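WARN retry 2 of 3 for item q-0093 after timeout on previous attempt; input resubmitted unchanged.
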Amino acid sequence: MNRNVFETIDTFRDINILVIGEALLDTYLKGNSERLCREAPVPVVDILDREDVPGGAANTAVNIRSLGGNVRFLSVIGNDIEATLLLRALEEKGVATDTVLVDSERRTLAKQRIVSDGQMMLRFDQGSTHPLDAQAENAILAMLPDLFHQSNGVVISDYGYGIITPRILEALIALQQKDPHVIVADSKYLPKFQDLGVTAIKPNYKEAVELLGLPARTTQQERLDQIAEHGERLIEICNTQIAAITLDCDGSLVFECGQPLYRTYARCAPHSQAAGAGDTFVGGLALALAAGVHTATAAEIASAASSVVVEKPGTVSCHADELKNFFFGDEKFVNNAFSVAARLASMRRDGRKIVFTNGVFDILHSGHVSYLSQAKAFGDVLIVGINTDESVRRLKGSSRPINPLEDRAQVLAALSSVDLIIPFGADTPKELIKTIKPDVYVKGGDYTLETLPEAPVVQKLGGEVRILSYLDDRSTTGMIERIRKVYVKTDQHAS
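OK item q-0093 returned
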């Protein structure tokens, strides 16, 4: 990653995001059900609590604000009780409502859920879904230029309920051509944004296969293989730079022009009833891209934020502190091999496949990120052995490492592909391998099976050795050398 994730999250306070799309009110009526109705054989729910929260594009705006960003929300709602409740809920979440326009001819979009003992029983939907009338459309068009120019990035949250009209889309295209912004589009109708020049799109699996004209698959591996094979077509179809396909508990697959496929790994709560995790993903992705980080880093942040919300019931948001805790509060760093062995024992009882790799990881770059993502794909748990500072100096000279062990481990921990990190002080991880007994040992393409000293140890333990393809011009040494050349030229020029 090109910047510490912790630092990136802190920069969100300086980022301004414009969200445009349909505002929804999500209402949860919660209670107990202990009897059947006399009029019909249906359960009676005694309502004990009511919760009104922003949904749809409004939830995306709330998530951006919760993650620390500054947000303006441009939408149109009705003049009804649902509108009053929605505006109140937005203000309580810190989202300004002065750009949420009221149209008395429309009915506010609302979803009302009946929940009993933690189980959703029924959902009622209401609201206007036809395109805006001329008056509301003109009001949006009048406000759009200033809001666009004041922002660092734009999120289009298009549910197809009439807010993004052809005229509004034309206005966005004209603004983007004059002043290019980071734009993230989340829509069931992504091809209509072909001429906008969006930075990233975020279809879910169902939306992706529909766009690709492919049949839906059911198993995890089938879905992953299918999208991995055809995902690049989404970039062509939608004329975008980045396509991030969310796969629920399977994380996401991220395609970028000229870059290797990247995967994030989700921490999905079983039987989650969370709503709007996709809104959270979009909000995190937009903030991170607008902050200027590498696409892989942005995807990790977005995936982590959505993983936080799926562990909660209802329509919720991810806060910046929760996001930080996700990356750095999950005890990925293990000080000794025996502790990690104890953890692995329970994982193996669950039938999980253990993958191991090792390295210095001094300055984490795109080659490392791609390599670790590929390594994780060979199993269920990825353990990374990381050289101690002393062993790095023996192997690479007194000028290395550039970053101490604690910093290197912290950056590694920010990757969703990495499950556990363990330091080792020997020149090779042979003894560590004997303790871990990995099912798969992965190394980069600068090795062969014959030149890899750990290979016989892995094979003797019944494990498999995988050598990944070598990525040209992707090395820490090369990066350091390029930096030195730049500074030498700068010093010479200054003198």
